[in-house]
Known about the structure:
By secondary structure, the protein is an alpha/beta fold.
Amino acid sequence: MSGPLRLAARELEGPAGPSPLIVMHGLLGSQRNWQAHGKALARERRVFLVDLRNHGESPWSEVMDYPAMAADVAALAERHGLERVSLLGHSMGGKVAMTLALDRPALVDRLIVADIAPVAYAHDFDTELGAMAALDLATVDRRATADAAMAALVPDVGVRQFLLHNLDFDADGKAAWRPNIEVLQSAMQKLTGWPGDGARRFDGPVLAVRGGRSPYVDDAGSAAFRQLFPAVEMVTIPEAGHWLHAEAPRPFLAAVQHFLDS
């Protein structure tokens, strides 16, 4: 197994007092999705927005599991001389954050998990990843072309626009996906799963924020949180679904800031 990757990250300078915050996106996201929240949170602390492996501008790897992703983030903290950090992760990024807190509890000051639980899920992202893999990039000269080509497989406009944030064009206009689609497809069982064995706990402060219209954190998920993270505080944003930071940005940010300041 290869060692940690050097993740691409954007540092937002803030006051040096509180523990720096590392923000981790979900599957097929990137640090670009967190710019607005990052700038708001950087008013009170240093903030690092990261691209997880096989996403954004970070390196690709055949290894795609939560222990490896958590080790990447720990290496980023060490590279920047951060002895204690707070973590904020959404969906897949939330599982990375939880794994790191369980693996390296001395490194983690506070943990914020957005709409995901420390459990395995039955759903997958085969439709979305399949549509991305099926797109003939040689015929794509702009995002509108890709959007039209993917419409049959991904009829939801909002989902297509989210996926198309991952499409880049080089100086010659050649299109390419930033995520490693092939590896993500092969790793889906690991990504929807949960690597924890239930033997470890993180006793530090934890905030679990869930969307009231999202099915991701149900009673079983809440029970799993309480077992592994006994100090967890559960907050529900009634008007939000799984993409709660985008659907209800103000209540989400208020909950995060209140927790970090408490």
